[in-house]
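USER: If only I could read backbone structure tokens as easily as an amino acid sequence. It would mean a lot if you studied the pair and described how this chain folds. Here is the record:
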Amino acid sequence: MSEQAANPRTRTVTWRDPQEGASAAKKLSGLEYLRAIQRGELPAPPIAELMGFAPVEVEEGRVVFAVKPGEHHYNPIGMVHGGLAATLMDSAMGCAIHTMLPVGAGYTTLELHVNYVKGIAHDTGPLLCRGEVIHLGGRVATAQGRLVDEKGTLYAHGTTTCMVFRPPGAGGKE
């Protein structure tokens, strides 16, 4: 019998209907929406439940997510998969942009660049991913992010470019 078969591990993930949050997003500014998720008044998106991260700071132009890496994040060579860092970076930077959007506006990632600078393991401890807006225009926004541990050690950094969707007549910066 293999060690894997002798020591099985399980993880159960539950989430609420994502349409509940999506419907609320259309009626709130980005900042109001993300703060409602942070307070638990609206459901976290399923990806956050799956990956195990949550917002710990939400302010205009800046969002911080926290995650505790675990074995369930591992890749085939026994380290946390880079997809965890990339997902955190994409989420934190995109949500930082979202905090600056008016009611009814949205965004999507056009480009994501992540630089990995240090490996992550299940015993790395809690990580914080900080996303901050660099530029918010009428159609395009950019943000930067940093993934650090509680001591400030850098694990990854990156940038994103997002397309902004504004409701008709909302105007916006160019």
